[in-house]
Sequence to fold (279 residues):
Amino acid sequence: MNNNFLSPSEIADATISAGIRKANMTISAQFMLGILAGAFIAFGAEAANMAAHTTADISTAKLISGLIFPAGLLLVITAGAELFTGNNLMILALAERKITPIQLLRSWLVVYAGNLVGGVLVAYLVSWSGQWDYSGGTLGGFTIKTATGKISLPFVKAVVLGVLCNWLVCLAVWSSTGAKDGISKAVCVFFPIWLFVASGFEHSVANMYYIAAGIIAKGNPSYVMKAIELGASQPSIDALDYCAMFTRNLLPVTFGNIMGGAGLVGLVYWFVYAKGKKS
Fold:
């Protein structure tokens, strides 16, 4: 391989070592780093909304969003934080029997909770910043419309969109693990994440911001009017709350994210590059 990159087999070894390290972190460290990751992803999400909210053509809007959103994952990888979706690759350490199922589940649950706190925190901070007043409140309306679209997805569709999303996200994490310099890591992150955003796939941690932001924005009647002008229905806005956030989006999307990340990336690469390999 090029000196700037690890081979896939070496990436598997590095991912297993990372999984062991993550599993043995203290709960407090996992939670704090989870908050940071949730916030970093939320920064990418809110900036993507800002960049695309006045673009009427859906394909162009997603293309623009995809150019912005990868910055969130790049921060997670380079600054250091714990992201639930990326941590689905800890499945390699479990498959190698280097960590226990309890360690894996504890890490996933603690980091997921931290991601949720970070995403909701940024949503509230953005609401207090007045950002949603941009374009005469259109950004606020766009924020609501985005959230209602996510809680209106049929369950199976949300699962499949979650599978496709984290297949790409974990490929970004896997590839960036093999990169030895910052520019190479940025390239490895950028293109798979651009693909998932431009394709409209569903990321559970990003949705912690997107839906929470919509719920908060819903409290402003002028934003609600803008959301209706943009095409959101009144019944979908009425249904927008934290219960719907969990039951109608995060539950199926998270399930899909695990299947895509742990299954289609983690277990496949473990089987090919690590299973039965001698130390």
The longest helix spans residues 242-273. The chain is about 80% helix and 0% strand. The CA atoms of residues 33 and 80 lie 8 Å apart. The domain at 8-273 is CATH 1.20.1080.10 (Glycerol uptake facilitator protein).
